[in-house]
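Q: Joint fold for the lines below.
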Amino acid sequence: MRRTSPFNIVSVALGLAFLYLPIVILVIFSFNASRLVTVWGGWSLAWYRELLHDDAMLAAASISLRVAVLSASAATVLGTCAAIALVRMGRFRGRLLFSSMVYAPLVMPEVITGLSLLLLFVAVNIDRGFWTIVVAHTTLTMCFVTVIVQARLIGFDRSLEEAAMDLGCPPLKTFLTITLPLIFPAIAAGWMLAFSLSLDDLVIASFTTGPGATTLPIRIYSQVRLGVKPEINAICTIMVVVVATATIIASLMTKRGAMRRERAAFAAQV
Amino acid sequence: MSIRQSWGARAVLLLPYLWLAAFFLAPFVIVLKISLSQTAVAQPPYLPVLDLAAGWAGLQDFVARLTADGYRLLASDQIYLLSYLKSLQLAAVSTAILLIIGYPVAYGIARSPRGLQPLLVMLVVLPFWTSFLIRVYAWINILQHDGLLNQVLLALHVIRAPLSWLSSDTAVYIGMVYSYLPFMVLPLYATIEKMDEVLLEAAADLGCTRTRAFWLVTVPLSLPGVAAGVLLCFIPIVGEFVIPDLLGGSQTLMIGQTLWTEFFSNRDWPVASAIAVALLSLLLVPIVVYQRLQSRQLEGLR
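A: Joint structure:
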């Protein structure tokens, strides 16, 4: 018995409208011909053209992209290892400490994480810049990867692995040929999430950055503090489009993976 | 099967373990140490600096020169206490509003046709994947003096003169609720969706009205989701920096901003560290509760 009441429809619709309206307005006004952000002066691509000539903004975007790719890749490797350790290794010594360290960064206020990492870099006397941001973002985002991959590993049918091992497949090969392909959608989704979190982070990057390593959010933030500019709307629109595309691809990948799994399960039963 | 024996398996555990120990745990020890130091005009701008080359005597000297001045300053100057209280107030009210708005949305999604649910969940998650900064910035567009909200309200003759929305508690609440809504909806949806609807039918058969069944059956069963959502929002909101900084004014000074100012403007690293330690100890209980919920939920999936 499943009835969709008008109340439910209205609350979901209002909730989604609340979530999307500001972003839609932002995107529309990035195509505004008028320099005044609040007056509509017709459609125009002027701000996107202006963006192409803003070298500082482009440099910041390039740094942000490189930081995001590197840190997301490192975070995916580390986060997947952590997930495997948490799900498959049972009770090992130091498990409580390990799982605390994995879950704490998810809710830790960013000012604390940023400050503590900066003080670490100062204490060991490392020059701050590009690489310190990469390390900081890896630390922050690997925990998100762990949670995603862990959920996938827990809901995972071990009989395929056991079958392979019974047939004499060594553990490493079993992992590479059976486990890895099956959890791959979750790993890919984890990478995407790590990538977009890194691209987005202002606070931790502000603490751990150094001369010459201004990321896109740091640049946008310094502009936003001076007031709303149509050019910022344009760069924000581009970021929204990039991240939305990545998210949709990621979810399609996980869905395809899920379908394949279901088909495999079905075939196994027949 | 035990994959614990092989070296490869050991590396799988050690790699993330050592990384987190080095870049998550160790930094906190350093924060604690620097919170007990003194500001100095030097590089790095604090004293004493631990000199490992001096050995045991150096360590003794180091410990002797540690001071609680940073914490004394926190206790003596009201601005710190006030910004702590303000953070707690803003976080508590925001979380309450989030629960009131998020519950009907999560409930509505959980009761929508099965085929539609993944799409609706994705629509809720999608904004969370777009930049936090952008989402806050989008609200500046709307809330500023000649922004859309005032224009719409003027056109509808609700107000006669434009109101100043920015730099107020209201703007901060709007920003918080907007940014954290997915964090509230998702855990709520997860628990409501798992609920067996037979229970509601049983309640109806026994003469319970739909409203009473909602309060007597659905709400108590969704409490774990409520707890997860509340913690997932409350803890980061207390330390929030971007939202109050961009949408709030001088009246909405939160502890995250105080820490930021001490660090970047005043360059007082010991006081910034002391604020971080105090903030962390304030949040320690909620964080531990959240972790237990998180691991229990993941174990429960097995």
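Q: Anything notable?
A: The longest helix of chain A spans residues 230-269. The CA atoms of residues 217 and 224 of chain A lie 10 Å apart.
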